[in-house]
Specification:
Shape: globular
CATH architecture: 2-Layer Sandwich
Distance between the termini: 46 Å
Number of helices: 6
Number of domains: 1
Structural class: alpha+beta
CATH superfamily: Beta Polymerase, domain 2
Order of helices and strands: HHHEHEHEEEH
Strand order of the largest sheet: 1-2-5-4-3
Length: about 170
């Protein structure tokens, strides 16, 4: 069971993922770790549906490829990845975005806010509300319709041109 996996084991697994040196046993361990977020994800999504009356989109577990790429791109350990489980809320405008962020902050006991509107990353803007449940982190992205359109456009460009374009790494090659 994932709760028996130690933090050290998870971070060593992350180190192997960074090196690209992963075995079938590592993939099974990563899958077990990813699945361990399901309960926390379902709890957070249920609260959003019942209390905020919005329908989140998302996934209970980030893909193996996305996890590996994030570990290579950033200087973090696997246990520090805050968006293994995550969902997204799309709202009409920034006024509604602020209202929803404030509502989420009051609904959950332990949250941190990462406001990418103030510090955009290569044009990407959103507010990330990271909910710290007793066992796991669950990230809620709150985007306006315009922020969502930009994110979708950059995703499509990265699929066609270069995956690194989302992170500003391919801009000089265009």
């Amino acid at each position: 069971m994932a709760s028996e996996i130690s933090k050290a084991q998870i971070d060593k697994l992350g180190d192997r993922l960074k090196k690209g040196n992963i075995s079938d046993a590592d993939l099974r361990l990563l899958d077990e770790y990813r699945r361990s977020f399901t309960g926390a994800y379902e709890t957070v999504v249920g609260i959003i549906r019942n209390e905020v009356m919005l329908e989140p989109t998302g996934r209970p577990a980030k893909s193996t490829t996305a996890i590996s790429e994030k570990l290579l791109r950033e200087t973090i350990r696997l246990t520090q990845v805050q968006d293994i489980a995550g969902c997204r809320l799309i709202v009409v405008d920034m006024v509604e975005q602020e209202r929803v962020v404030q509502r989420l902050s009051k609904l959950f006991d332990n949250v941190s806010i990462v406001d990418r509107r103030k510090q955009p990353s290569h044009g990407y803007r959103a507010v990330h509300v990271v909910v710290k449940t007793p066992a796991k982190l669950v990230e809620i992205q709150v985007r306006t319709a315009l922020q969502q359109a930009w994110a979708e456009l950059s995703e499509k460009l990265s699929d066609v041109i270069d995956p690194a374009i989302k992170y500003g790494e391919a801009i000089n090659r265009l």
